[in-house]
Write a structure and sequence with these properties.
The termini are far apart. The longest helix is centred in the last third of the chain and has 20 residues. The mean pLDDT is 96. The chain has one domain: Glucose-6-phosphate isomerase like protein, domain 1 (Rossmann fold, 3-Layer(aba) Sandwich), CATH 3.40.50. The chain is an alpha/beta fold and 186 residues long. The chain is 54% helix and 15% strand. It has a five-stranded parallel sheet with strand order 2-1-3-4-5.
């Protein structure tokens, strides 16, 4: 019982440490991409890959169904064949950046998720996206890791425990999605 009390207390502290202003900017960038017909790409590893995939479901279906303006979203995590081909034949470090080379352009958005903030394949994706004029958003821990400084906008979570980080990333993606899903239907 005490474990649950402590876990929930620390999760509340992490959620209380989120920056509503930065979240609002992320929502604005996502809606701008939708309104201008630009793409949103999402990437991450492990649990962050699952969060990326769920985020795409929410945007492609939940925030687009029945609307004239729809989100164009790709989870760079979802093509196992593509990821394993690059990982096997080139390197795991390039699995997201190489996919972006096929699609990404100025005005697109990349949402990069990493609990450590140091995943080489996520960092390479952000570097490439920045270089071609994408807006880059990081969901990462606020206290460490290169990702927080590399992305143009960071939604930092003040936690180090991977479970609480991932819980917070899910909450962040739901805030982003529901800000889009609950706006008036156009």
């Amino acid at each position: 019982m005490q474990f649950a009390i402590d876990y929930l207390r620390e999760l509340r502290a992490a959620l209380d440490g989120l920056d509503p202003g930065a979240i609002g900017t992320a929502v604005s960038w996502m809606k701008d991409a939708r309104d201008r017909g630009r793409f949103i790409y999402v990437c991450g590893n492990g649990g962050s890959a699952s969060i990326a995939s769920q985020m795409v479901v929410d945007l492609v279906k939940g925030a687009s169904y029945g609307r004239a303006r729809r989100f164009k979203v790709i989870a760079l995590t979802d093509s196992v064949a593509t990821i394993t081909a690059y990982a096997n034949d080139v390197s795991y470090e390039c699995v997201f950046a190489e996919q972006l080379r096929n699609f990404a352009g100025e005005g697109d958005v990349l949402i990069a998720i990493s609990g450590s903030g140091n995943s080489p394949n996520v960092l390479r994706a952000v570097e490439y996206a920045n270089g071609v004029g994408c807006r880059t958003i990081a969901l990462t821990r606020s206290g460490a890791g290169a990702l927080k400084d590399l992305a143009r906008l960071t939604l930092g979570v003040p936690a180090t425990h991977m479970g609480r980080l991932e819980d917070s990333f899910f909450a962040l993606t739901h805030i982003l999605m529901y800000a889009c899903m609950e706006e008036a239907v156009d």
